Amino acid sequence: MDLGLSGRKAIICASSRGLGKACAAALAREGVDVVINGRDVERLEIAAKEISRTAKGAVTPVAADINTAEGRAKLISACPQADILVNNNEGPPPGAFQQWDETQWQAALDANLLAPVFMIKALIEGMKQRRFGRIVNITSAMVKAPRSPMGLSTAARSGLTAICKGLSVDAAPFNVTINNMLPERFDTDRQKQMAELAMAFKKITYEEARAEIAQSIAAKRMGDPAEFGDACAFLCSAQAGFISGQNLQLDGGSYPGLI
């Protein structure tokens, strides 16, 4: 299927690795000129080279911290007329409610609510004027199935989900869509960290921890980041213009609810 994206321009936040990188690679293969982002210059340059091997569009790395106004301005200036924005950012670590102080709450809100909100604010009016825009927020399965150890992430990302639902209604007449992707247990560095935490807490091996993670998923395996990237590319496609304000579960069939 031709997704109708050749020649479009995209900003993919936090895309030097993991799910952000997978989204950038999928869009670049469709002929999108992608601006990728990260704070580690060396890792970012490596990611750009890797994505470029299969890209039909240009790949531009921009080192910037999107948790700061300066970093966001630098990223937006590299692609001020972006047709596609993929919001992504590292989530806060799991923990205990009673141990989180104001600094930790503020950091979570800065990274997982305010940073994406300000990226959207900077780009959405241009998308509406050009009558094409695709905004995808990478959030978390915990938005719909909260667990207390992930409270920092859940609170911030649920706020983003709520504001974007309202914005999606306003943007729809202009062929601008806003959707959220809710991943769980994709085989990225995040799951390596979770396995290492399980090792320390349960006194088990890394292989045992990985196996436990896989068994917690209905599909009995972790997700492949490439699967996630391809789903993102479709949400950004010309064909997806009638899909907006949605929360797409990508969890191997694990979510038990109807809605």
Task: Tell me what the structure shows.
It contains eight helices and seven strands, in the order βαβαβαβαβαβαααβ. The chain is of the alpha/beta class. It has a seven-stranded parallel sheet with strand order 3-2-1-4-5-6-7, with helices on both faces. Helix 1 (18-29) crosses helix 8. The protein is globular and about 55 Å long. The mean pLDDT is 96.
Physical arrangement of strands within the biggest beta sheet: 3-2-1-4-5-6-7
What Rg is obtained from the alpha carbons, in whole angstroms?
18 Å
Tell me how many strands there are. 7
CATH level 1 name of the largest domain: Alpha Beta
CATH fold call of the largest domain: Rossmann fold
Described by strand count, sense and barrel closure, the largest sheet is:
7 strands, parallel
Distance between the termini: 29 Å
Average pLDDT number? 96
DSSP summary: helix tally: 8
| CATH homologous superfamily title of the largest domain | NAD(P)-binding Rossmann-like Domain
Class derived from helix and strand content: alpha/beta
Would you identify the regions where 5 or more consecutive residues have pLDDT less than 50? Answer: none
Per CATH, the architecture of the largest domain is: 3-Layer(aba) Sandwich
Helix % is 40-55%
What proportion strand? 5-15%
Which overall shape is indicated by the principal axes computed on the Cα atoms? globular
Number of domains: 2
Spell the H/E element sequence.
Answer: EHEHEHEHEHEHHHE
